[in-house]
UniProtKB/TrEMBL annotation:
Coiled coil: none annotated. Keywords: Hydrolase. The keyword Hydrolase applies. Residues 54-506 form the Amidohydrolase domain. This is Hydrolase. One of its GO terms (molecular function) is hydrolase activity, acting on carbon-nitrogen (but not peptide) bonds. It comes from Ornithinimicrobium tianjinense.
Length: 508
């Protein structure tokens, strides 16, 4: 592992109290990294033979940033897919795809794939017939922006052995189809090319680690990535229920190193998708959705019942695995909390988009973090106002979670939102576009809190991981300004250096 001495950097205080009083000046100091860890922090650290030095020139130093929820291969694939995120309805989506097909050659796989549409507010819902009217000459697959449904034409339904339907393929039926999409000729090569670009971009944003909750056996993918010389990023990799028994048989536990990865990849949690999503209108809620026309159940629905979830979580816990339970609706969050309580399992609830106030007391007594993606709020406000107008004050309830002492970890769920922790932090601080109003500002957090929720619990002190980023400006410098200006300042952040495991991977 490379060693490094950072000179003249100012360590951002992540644990101080926020107030309107002027902050005490932060004096420059040195940070010595040895064998992949912070060895010493202090002024005038003696130079050592063979250890390179970087002069920070008074720049601001933070532990490296983490994105706690990413689907890395899917994020890499977005670059090769038609962007349908701007679609406002069925006809608009079809026009976007038509224009792209006229402009671009057919992919090597022979399948046209788009990604990003969100149907919760569309007057007309997607149908196979509508997509067939565009073309039946080639298979077309349009993946929703929440990744919980696929809109396929008839050739694609046949090619990918999808269930017969006249509408979209959603939830568990869709996840199986998505796996088959990844097996098409050239799909894996295209994905990995995209991953390399995505990881390089992540380094420039100060990202040193991700929790990769991709389907399949991502630990094998990450081992190959390290062999292929992919950009240096740490990873925790999850496993899904279908792979649980095989993983348990290996004896691997959460936190164990994945061999052949230079010590940078570790096994993460069991991931269980316990309900659906807001935009596909499959999130499981205590009260019914508004505008529930066409829904089989206006409350949404669980993907797994309490007994099944308890069995999975209990088996994983007994085998030394943490658990990450996807729960977007408040009924799903409640079920997950009750299962964590009954099994004694450790881990997190992924998304926690809608939470009942009455469930926070139980949550505060459990070793269960809230893994939240604040940038989803920017995409979902209109849908939440339409579908959950009577409960918007308890959506993305970051303030309520922190005030109860519940650990919060921020992420993106890329490709659902961009792999950009500064965007996530800006949304957590302002809860709206920087040039717009703050939406339910009572649930906002401070910049200092957002930063602390983005560094994987690390602080720049001896014994910490040797992951450091240097910023040109003080990220707390706008803390006394309106939240929109604070968010804008976060989005303008310039990362002048990123260090992973003692190695300078971005910056001069």
């Amino acid at each position: 592992m490379p060693d490094l001495l950072l000179r003249h950097v100012r360590v951002v205080p992540l644990d101080g109290a926020d107030s309107d009083a002027p902050a005490r000046p932060v004096e420059p100091t040195d940070v010595l990294l040895l064998d992949g860890s912070v060895a010493e922090v202090g002024r005038g650290i003696a130079a050592r033979d063979g250890i390179p030095e970087v002069d920070g020139a008074g720049r601001w130093a933070l532990p490296g940033l983490w994105d706690h929820h990413v689907h890395v291969a899917q994020w890499g694939l977005t670059r090769s897919r038609i962007d349908t995120s701007a679609a406002t309805g069925v006809e608009h989506a079809l026009q976007i795809v038509r224009d792209a097909m006229d402009r671009e050659p057919l992919p090597r796989s022979g399948v046209v794939v788009g990604y990003g549409h969100r149907t919760a507010t569309w007057a007309e819902q997607p149908s196979v017939a509508a997509l067939d009217a565009l073309t039946t000459a080639v298979p077309v697959v349009l993946i929703s922006g929440d990744a919980h449904h696929g809109w396929l034409n008839s050739p694609a339904l046949r090619l990918l052995d999808a269930p017969a339907t006249t509408a979209v393929v959603e939830e568990w039926d869709w996840f199986g189809v998505y796996d088959r999409l990844a097996e098409l000729p050239g799909a894996r090569e295209v994905a990995e090319d995209g991953v390399a670009v995505a990881l390089r971009e992540a380094q420039t944003r100060g990202v040193v680690g991700v929790t990769d909750l991709e389907f399949g056996r991502p630990w094998e993918q990450w081992r190959q990535r390290k062999l292929d010389g992919m950009p240096l990023v740490r990873a925790r990799v999850g496993v899904y229920p279908e792979g649980l028994d095989d993983l348990v048989a290996t004896g691997l536990r959460t936190g164990d190193l994945v061999t052949g990865t230079r010590g940078l990849v570790r096994l993460g949690p069991l991931k269980v998708i316990s309900d659906g999503s807001l935009n596909t209108r499959t999130a499981w809620c205590c009260e019914p959705f508004h505008h529930a026309e066409g829904m089989a159940d206006p409350h949404g629905a669980p993907n797994i019942d309490a007994a099944g979830l308890a069995d999975l979580v209990g088996r994983a816990h007994a085998a030394g695995l943490e658990c990450a339970v996807h729960a977007i609706g408040d009924a799903a969050v409640r079920q997950a909390l009750e299962v964590f309580a009954s099994t004694g399992a450790v881990g997190g609830i992924e998304h926690a988009q809608l939470v009942a106030e009455s469930d926070l007391e139980l949550w505060s007594r459990l070793p269960v973090r809230a893994s939240v993606q604040p940038a989803h709020l920017l995409d979902d406000v209109v849908a939440m106002e339409r579908l959950w107008p009577d409960r918007t004050g308890r959506t993305f309830p970051l303030r309520s979670l922190l005030d109860r002492g519940i650990e919060v970890a921020l992420g993106s769920d890329a490709p659902v939102s961009p792999l950009d922790p500064w965007l996530a932090m800006a949304a957590a601080v302002h809860r709206g576009p920087v040039d717009g109003e703050s939406w339910h500002a009572e649930q906002a957090v401070t910049v200092r809190e957002a930063l602390a929720c983005s560094v994987d619990g690390q602080r720049l002190r001896p014994g910490a991981r040797g992951d450091v980023i240097l910023l040109d400006d003080d990220p707390l410098g706008a803390a006394d300004r309106p939240t929109g200006e604070q968010a804008a300042a976060l989005l303008r952040t310039v990362i002048s250096a990123t260090v992973v495991d003692g190695e300078l991977v971005h910056g001069a």
